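Field reference: sequence -> structure
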Amino acid sequence: MDVDQLSKEIYSKNNTIVKKITNVFGKEVIKNNGTIDFAKLGRIVFNDFKQMEKLNDLMFPLINESVARFIKANKDKKYIIIDAAVLFDAGLDRFCNKIIYLTADDEGREKFLKFKNSDLCIEDIRQRILNQKIKVDSDKIDYMIRNDSSLKDLYGDIDSFIKKL
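Structure field:
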């Protein structure tokens, strides 16, 4: 489960959250078609931690509800992988039996963010990396992978960990 993608689905399918975001951050974060302008919203929240907290207060309960529904719907699976930079911040770690922590240098993070958010310019990406305050609870991490090589190597490292389970 990709929590970034899940968040975008919440933004696109939940009119109530769009209204709340408009009330909190203003009409300038809404496109003419009524959808969230993620680049504009990102500039606000990644430049002001208090604004990020406001967004998190709106989104984290909805994200938690969606993750819980997903897990319930997929309880027959051997395992479920939750891909979430905000795993600890949002309290999603409560759903996890094991936690793999992927880390990368800033260059790797820039490439990844550009891949996931092709509409962002490099300045916005660097601002996000600079101001991201991602909580990490190292006591809960079972396995750490340094993601500074090829995608093939990354998948190999993940497969290696999964086989140990």
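Note: The radius of gyration is 17 Å.
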